[in-house]
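>> received
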Amino acid sequence: MITIQQATPMEAQLIADIGAKSFIESHGHSGPVTDIESYVSMKFALPVVAEELTNPDNIFHIIYYQGRAAGYSKIIFNSPHPLINDAHVTKLERLYLLKEFYGFKLGLALFEYITDLSKKANQTGIWLFTWIRNERAVNFYKKAGFEIIGNADFKISATHANPNHIMYLHYVQTH
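>> returned
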C-alpha cells in the first residue's frame, strides 16, 4: 500500500533523517568522506530542514509504503532556470528514496504525483539537477522524458563539487 501526503513542519525530523540517509546511500561515494559528512550535517540538520518546511515556496511530500516512510520530494513552483525559455516551470529539488525501498516503483509513484501537482498549478515543465554518475537517477529521468539541457557543478564542500546534468521535461499540452 502506497500513500503520499504533504509534509508539515511536524515532520522535519523525519525529512532530515530520510534526506541524510538517502543522500549518503546515493552520493556517499562521490567524494571524500569528510566532505560528504560535512555536507549532510549542514544540509539535513533539523533547524535547516524545519526552516525549509516553513517556507511557503517549498512543497514537500512524503511517500509511505506499508505504513513506513520510504522517501520524500521537494518541489518549487515558478522556479525559472536560465537554460529554459518557459516562464512557469517547477524545480524538482529533491526526490529521495531510501535504498531499502528500491524496486517497488515508489520513486515513479512520487514523481507522477508531483508532476500532476505541477501541471494542475499551470506549470509548463519540470527541471532538476542530477549527479552525472548516478546512473539509476539519470536513466529514471530519461525514461520519464527528461532531456539533458546543460551541466553544472554541485558544490559538496569548498574543495569538492560533483558534475551534474541539468535535465528538463516540457509537458505536452493536452486539451
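>> Residues 34 and 157 are 9 Å apart (CA to CA).
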